[in-house]
Write a structure and sequence with these properties.
Elements (H helix, E strand, L loop, with lengths): L1 H6 L4 H10 L9 H13 L5 H6 L9 H31 L4 H29 L21 H8 L4 H13 L1 H11 L11 H25 L5 H17 L2 H20 L4
Helix pairs in contact: 2-8, 5-6, 5-10, 5-11, 5-12, 6-10, 7-8, 8-9, 10-11, 11-12
Keywords: Membrane, Transmembrane, Transmembrane helix
Amino acid sequence: MRYLSDLESGSARQWYWLEIAQKYPTSIKSNKTKILGIALNTFGINACEAILKKHGIKGLNLYQTASQHFWALAQHKTNDALLFSGCILALLMGFNRLPASQQLAAWCLGLGGATWQLWKLSRTARQFTPPILPDPDEETTPGAESSLGLQGMLLAAGATPAVSIALVKGLAQDPAGFLAPLLVNLPSLAPDPQPTRAQQIILSASPWLAIGGLSSWLIGLFPAFWGGGVVLILMLAAGWGLHRTIKPVGLMAISWLACGLLARLTHYI
């Protein structure tokens, strides 16, 4: 938990984790904790919320909304890459293109899709540049480093001494039960629900690159005209793992089938 507080250094959430950590023994460093620390530092707390919950860490309800937004974006970007990549591969198979052509198309599509996603992100950033406004809480609420703990920040935000003491004590005993009143008295405690800029870049580009690279490798690994079919089956399995419902996976499969059949029809026109 102290590692989580270090990740949130400079915000009210740093003291949030320190207050919770006081009731737990100091964790022993192991290979598992080192790997988890690397994952947290690389992907962020919102991306690793489910893993942290499995390790029995309390207080993660604070990141529930941020985690939902993160995985919703990951699902959306991965679904787009699967759908479009499958359609292009089905078209090439319908036109009886050689595996080498399919491999080249997979690489080009992966690189082109990632570039397109990054261009869209940069364009969005240029179109919306929020003005730099002073934080309305800056004059009344001290920063995490300059305050005297979470209780001090609550007092500076306008909470009474009795309420602030009760909230801090309750947080240590029952983080989930006291989170709602804590957010009411200290709104700055809530993390930004939207993924960070770095996370948006990774989530936008990595599905295209991963699908393109793996597709090209698998097409070359299997005998001619078998590789494309194996890739489509694996992509369909990935879509099922992504959605776990029949409708979106069925629509994806129908789209691929339609593209392949349209390409085959050119032989009879």
